[in-house]
Structures are given as C-alpha cells and as structure tokens.
Amino acid sequence: MLRLAGLIAFVILAVVLLVVLARGCSSSSKHAKYENYITDVRGIASRSAEIGKQLNATLAATGIKESQLEAKTKGTQPRSSRRSRRRVTSILLGLCASSTTT
Question: Hey, what long-range contacts does 88-91 have (CB within 8 A, 24 or more apart)?
Fold first, then answer.
C-alpha cells in the first residue's frame, strides 16, 4: 500500500514538473518573438527617421520649384516599406495569437 501511494505521488510530481517546464518554454518563446519584433521595429524606426531628415532638408530648401520638390519627395519612400509593414503586421498577429492561446 505504501509503494502504491509513493508511485501516485511520483506521478503527480512528474505531471506538475512537466506543466511547469511547458509553461517556461512557452514564455521564453514569447520573449524571443517579442525581442525579434522590437529589433524589426527599431530598424523600421531608424529608416523612418532618416527619411524624415531627408524630407525636412528637402522642404527647407529655398528656391526649389514644385515639380522638383515632387520628384525629390517621391524618391524618399523606401521600396521595402510595404514589405516592412507586412512583416510587422504578421509579427503582431503572431504575438496576439500566442497571447490569446495561453
């Protein structure tokens, strides 16, 4: 009888440990996803700041014609902006989906 009680206690302990380990792995996975998201957003923000500086310099230039201004400002939009927006959106959706499942 004592052996059976010890076996049951061991099984319960093993199940509790498995649950704790599973939650720990899930938490570190969320942290890694969030860290990657922040890294991506920092890159987008720095490119945006650079484009803002270029746009400010272009708008502050004196003696520039409207057609020249349009040509310069069209060149400031990065080609990867649409891809970056999609990447950030997919990351956000992934974070939201993983946070609602736990």
Answer: 88/37, 88/40, 88/41, 88/44, 91/33, 91/36, 91/37, 91/40
- Rounded to an integer, what distance in angstroms lies between the CA atom of residue 50 and that of residue 17? 50
Domain spans of the chain, in order of start: 2-101
Q: Where are the alpha helices (DSSP H) in the chain?
A: 2-60, 66-74, 81-101
Nearest to 85 by CA among 30, 41, 33, 36: 41
Q: What is the C-alpha to C-alpha distance for residues 28 and 84, in angstroms, rounded to an integer?
A: 25
Q: Do the Cβ atoms of 30 and 98 come closer than 8 Å?
A: yes
53-78 confidence digits (pLDDT tens) = 888 887 787 777 777 777 776 765 55
Tokens of 25: 């792995």
